[in-house]
Predict the structure.
Amino acid sequence: MTLPDYHFISAPLWLVTALHLLTLTLHLAAMSCLLGGTLIALWTGARKAWPAPDAAGFARVLPAATAATVSLGVAPLLFLQLVYPRQVYAATIVSGWFWLAVIGAVITAYYAFYRTSFQAHRTGRVSLGLLALAALGLLYTSLVYSSVFALAEQPALLRALYAKDQSGWVWNPAAGAYGLRWLHMVLGALTVGGFFVSVLGRKSPAMAATGRAAFVGGMAAAAAVGFLYLISLDADLGAYMRTPAMPVLVVSLALSLAALHFHAKKHFGLSGLCLFLSVFGMVYMRHVLRLVRLQGSFDLAAWRVAPQWSPFLLFLVCFLLMLGVLVWMAKLFFRPDEDVTEA
Amino acid sequence: MHYPFWDQPIGYGVLMAVIAVFHVFVSHFAIGGGLYLVVNEHLARRDGDMARLAFLEKLSKFFAMVTLVAGALTGVGIWFVIGLLAPAATEALIHNYVWGWATEWTFFVVEIAAAMLYFYGWKRLTAKAHLTLGWIYFGAAWLSLAVINGILTFMLTPGRWLVTGDFWQGFFNPTYWPSLVLRTGVCVMLAGLYALLVASRLEAGDFKARTVRQAAGWAVVGLAVTALAQAWYWKAIPAAVTARALETMPTPVRAIVLSLWLAAALGAGVLALVVLAPRRFGTAAALAFMALGMAWFGAFEWSRESLRKPYILAGYMYGNGAEVAQTATYQREGFLPQITFRTGDDGADLFRHACRSCHTLDGYKALRPALAGADRAYLVALVQGAHLLRGNMPPFLGTPREAELIADHLYQRTDHRSLAEIYRIDGLALGRRAYDLRCGKCHAVGTASDKAKSLAGQSAEDLSGMLDMASSLGEGMPAYTGDAAERKALVAYLQTLGQGGKP
């Protein structure tokens, strides 16, 4: 009996790649609101810069942001295996314990957010200790992701590290390869988090001012670090410059500036859209860079494409339904108060 | 073979069990608990029962904490763990079922969002809107189970997929429906057990009695559905798999028997409670029921995992990641050329990829104590005949030279003094040790492969002669390579076995 071969991609590669990039952008947007928002809340909390009710109100949003980050993070992790076969999973194994500890770190952060949220609801105060604990959990998670994904882009280093140590206690030693990248991600999160804070706190002058400052300052700093990161690519820079990533970079920068412009005009919807598209551009550029770096390590063109259209159609219908149900539930929840005593 | 191997000391089975079992408890509770909340909220609002509504609101807080945080995160944790422990199987599953998983993700997102809005909506929403969110939550959670169930059951009973490779034939495989009914029953049972736990802390009175009776009803109905579905599930598994389990794998059979006893104990306990003392029902009893329910479910999951041996994807991929379809390639070219991540120590690399996914040296399914006293020749024979050993091990598919490399790796790490020296024993105790080491790994006493009866009436000379010609007694039988003292003790022990196990 000839057994089925699993070395195939169950939809055209462009479609799988597009889904990966889209879902990753959604995850990053939620994660940035969460991480950036937490860092801003921590900073302003330490300086008592926000009125207590504003700070408490913001703290109560953080569990929902965590839920969104976690649930939106599953899909890109799934598509990852199809877009970069074996590379990332191999890197996670070499750093196995650090990778697995991410679950503990996120659970800790999640419970810390809930505790803070309940406390804020009950007492009107925000626990800076719990916020700091949550921020540490998130920063650890982001650092592990940067480290592991950077390791995945260096197959030779990955093999050398594994040959020396198979215990899963290997931390990517090439900090130069991911330090700037991690910093860029954190600053990006601060930018998006600033936007998030400014929109949520648009009726509070203190929150709006902090959010605006983080939005503008974070974007400037992220652009500077991103530029440094580009320069640090050295040998890969030439090849990278010849890819479609460069025009996308220009468009993304323009979108970021447009986001600032619309934000200043208080057109938050347009600003958010530009910012989201700009993040999508960044995600695309990371994808192209990864392909440049992994050139020769795998050839996706060699993988058989055997579309599974009926399961895909089911997914598509469910995906659209999901969007519809989410919007409907949000409308239901946030619509003007009705008589809640109705039995 | 295409991935590095995570050489951690805990053991793959243990690590997987810790995260997966915890997750299945929480995730099934998340579904049943959602149904319990929304049904009871409906009844309470219909009857204007404010005490019950207050009880449900309190219940929903813990429910949200457990399901949203621990449930969601350990679900992601399972992703992490299977990617670390069984990357090849994960890869094969993703390539075949990416759209199944992606569909499940859409339900997961709705489930999480609905749970949050339901939890925060008690005071904010109208009754109708709140109930609607509750039903959306339950629907999405159950659909999520219905999708994952297809992939999970596929791993044990892929059915026609092995021939056609068709997504739907693999998804709606022979155990899909019984497993879905069984798991739905588990959801209801766990919801009842949890409600019992919360109700046990209520003040004694009519409300407590009503709540306890109702929660007990959920637990018993869930248990009854589950018990019936378990019988259906067992029948749906291919006869060859169940027959092999009954003959050669005591572990899953024991787990199944244990699970039935636990289910019976649980059912009897809950029923007795409803009849005898609903008002005085205490937290200790509730915790005991909860522990019984979890033990029963844990035993079921354990048996399901064990039944799949020696495969991780039945008929397709062995537990160590070796692909059935690549058997000829492994035998022709060996394992080593297929291993992408090498360390320079071929024996260690082969050991990791062929054995370590189940065995550790000193921890879970430890080899060092199990192989203490073994000589190199015997170890080579053990590796080559791995599929004949107890526990349904995968066959060693590499070359003879590779089997020697694994044996050398083990030999260097085990105590190879004589058994008499290691354990400071002689006589029948030594014979028993020798039997365990050299015979019992296939012919365990009391199992289907027990050959004790064939030893009846044989003299010491006969038995010694049998040991001389051991390698010609059957396929995969190793030559007897123990020393003279061990042989003498083993022969004496074999004689006691021939006499019914009594010296």
Q: What stands out?
A: The beta strands of chain B are 311-313, 317-318. Chain B touches chain A through 78 residues (CB under 8 Å). The domain at 12-318 of chain B is CATH 1.20.1630 (Formate dehydrogenase/DMSO reductase fold).
